[in-house]
Amino acid sequence: MEFHRVIVDKLGIDVVTHDPVIILTDVTTGKSLPLVIGIFEATSIAFALEHHKMPRPLSHDLIKETIEQLDAELVRVEIHSVIDDTYICNLVIQSSSGELIEIDARPSDAIAVALRTNTDIFISAELMERVGVSGRFTASSAQSEGSEDGQPVSHLVITPTHGPHEDQEEKENEVDEFLDNFDCSDMLGDEDENEDGSDGQEPNKDED
What we know:
By secondary structure, this protein is an alpha+beta fold. Helices cover 29% and strands 26% of the residues. The chain contains 6 helices and 8 strands, in the order E-E-E-H-H-E-E-E-H-E-H-E-H-H. It has helices spanning 39-50, 59-69, 107-117, 125-131, 168-181, 184-188; strands at 3-13, 20-26, 32-36, 73-83, 86-94, 100-105, 121-124, 151-152. The longest helix has 14 residues, at 168-181. It is globular.
């Protein structure tokens, strides 16, 4: 299977559903793939892009540390297919003995770990050709009918431009804006306590 490397090009909020959206851009073709992700995964990705250190490790920091302590290495992340409108992704890890292990993961979790380990992210060339969109997105231009993590985004408003790379200052400003506007209580309703009520861990959230 042929893969193309992608970069995390944009991170923003859907102006219609208020779901976080991440834009992956193919460095070979310039096509983009928008994904709806969870609010906590989006915040974790934003922290990684900002190189922000938490007082206590988040889940993705813990995964990174576990891999390193086992003398293993995250070699690459592969987004390879779509099943029931959900993108399927693998963490490809090389063990201390040299064995390559593929671990199923949600794209948002895989991206959050990859950013912490400076690992390249790849997408199937066939998949990007089929679902990728030519053009670029403003921070809040993607609109979606669904909010499930890893779900394809539909009804896109695209801002065409040239090439997949954006100005670094623009990227940093978008991440700052996302963090400045993030309010956990908006997503949790009445649940405003931390996981253990004291040490800054991620709040509880049921997973599918």
